[in-house]
Amino acid sequence: MSREPHYHDQRSPGYPAPRFRRRGIYLLPNLFTTAALFAGFFAITAARGGQFELAAIAIYVAMVLDGLDGRVARLTHTESDFGAQYDSLADVVSFGLAPALIMYDWALQPMANLGWLAVFIYAAATALRLARFNTQLGSADKRYFTGLACPSAAAVLMGLVWVGEDLGIQGQQLAWVALCLTVISGVLMVSNILYLSFKAVDLKGRIPFVALLAIVLGLGFASMDPPKILFGLALCYAISGPAMSVWRRRQRALRRRHHGGEPSREE
User: Fold this and answer.
1) C-alpha distances in angstroms, 4 versus 7, 10, 46, 244?
2) Residue 207, Cα to own-chain centre: how many angstroms?
3) For the chain, how many structural domains are there in total?
4) What is the domain range of residue 187?
5) Is the pLDDT of residue 262 over 60?
6) How far is 53 from 182, CA to CA, in rounded Å?
7) Counts of helices then strands in the chain (DSSP H, E)
8) Which is more confidently placed, 108 or 217?
9) Contact (Cβ atoms closer than 8 angstroms) between residue 66 and residue 84
10) What is the mean pLDDT of residues 207-213?
11) Residue 141 belongs to some domain of the structure
12) What is the pLDDT of residue 13?
């Protein structure tokens, strides 16, 4: 008896037509990811040409686009493993390599070995932080980030560059400040400190009118002096993680002391 497979005519009654799996990627969220990658690459080329303020702004644009791609994917139900991996690779460029190279060219180049070592620590920390994030996608508490998110770390570094350029301060004059911020931002990214992720915010739900008014006022306030206000917000968020961690430890210590000092009811 022949063992060759027998194929049925798709048009024959009683036999369902074969189902083929469609191959491809979702266009909309990956367009945002590609645009964020382009902004990061553009920032590198701008810094190489000495346009550091433009480079810093490009990284902030990449941050906005990076925040939108995930939101768009969730709202349109177009999430995919490809999109998650592509987003991480783009983040390595836009929030790892680009800020590191910009900071090196702007302030740390005169420090020679110490300068490039600092930016390497930052770039490596970005890659390690993203690798850890990808391995914890299914198990981590979505309300928090473990370690400082790499866009937030990039906002701290680029905020310093933008403020310095806005005030007419040469990067070499802030070399030690830039060095400390670069290394500390890298360490915070690979730390176990928890940061609020704000992913619990429901964009599809209703909000009070007062909340919308607060958003409008906040945007107006930020537009008054974007470099200083954005840099200040980035610093506050970076500090919030360690500050909340210290507060939680103190609260746990107080609770243990309180319960340990209570007399037993059986006495």
Assistant:
1) 9, 18, 63, 68
2) 25
3) 1
4) 27-200+223-259
5) no
6) 18
7) 9, 2
8) 108
9) no
10) 72
11) yes
12) 55
